[in-house]
Amino acid sequence: MAFELPKLPYAYTALEPYYDAQTLEIHYSKHHNTYTVNFNKAVDAAGLEGKTAEEILTSLDSVPADKKTALVNHGGGFWNHSFLWESLAPNAGGEAKGNLGSAIKAKWGSFAAFQEVFSAKAVGHFGSGWAWLVVNQKGELEIMDTHDQVCPLTLGLKPLMVIDVWEHAYYLKFKNVRPDWVKSWWNIVNWDKAEERFNAISG
Ligand code: MN
Fold first, then answer.
1. Dist. CA 82 → ligand 1 center (Å)
2. Do 130 and 80 contact (CB within 8 A), yes or no?
3. CA 127 / ligand 1 centre spacing (Å)
4. Which residues are found with C-beta within 5 Å of the ion, ligand 1?
5. Domain that holds residue 69
6. How far is the CA of 14 from the centre of ligand 1 (A)?
7. Per-residue DSSP letter, 51
8. How far is residue 142's CA from residue 132's CA, in Å, rounded to a whole number?
C-alpha cells in the first residue's frame, strides 16, 4: 500500500485570516502531494514497501547512502507536512494549557517567554526548514530547528508542534517578511493536539 496524501482536517479557508486559503491550497495540494509521490518512489527504490513512515524515518542509518537522501527529503516532506496540518486548527492559538502549559511555564518561566524564544528560533532559521517544540531524549521540552525536510523523529526526538519556515509556506501572503508569518501562525496553533501528544509521551 503506497503512502497517500492525508486528508486535510479542515477547509482551505478555515485558517483565514491567519493562513490564507491560496497558500494553504498550494502548500497542501502541490507541495505536500509532490513529497508524497516522491516518497513512494524513494521507498520503492530502497525496497522498503510495507514499512510505516515512522519506521522508515527512525531507521535511516540502515539504508545505503545512495538511497538515504531521497528518503530524508521526501519522507521528511511527507511526514512533516502531515504533522503540520494536524498541528494547526481554526479558532485555536492562545496559550498552552493543562500539563503542557505547566511544563512550558516550568521550563521558560512564562508562556510569553517561551513564545519569544520559539519565535526567535523560527525567524532566525537560516534558509528552508522548520522550528519545533519537542520532547528530547532526556524527556525535557526543547525548542529546536531542522534544515530542509529533516524530521525530528530521525534525531530521536518527539515533536509536539511545529512551524514551517520554508518560503513556500508563507511567501504569497507575507512575502519576505517571515516574522509576520510567525506572528500570524501563533493564532492557529492547535494546543489541544500538542497537549494530547505531550500526554501520550509522558503517559
Ligand atoms: Mn512546507
1. 10
2. yes
3. 13
4. 164, 166, 169
5. 21-87
6. 18
7. S
8. 8
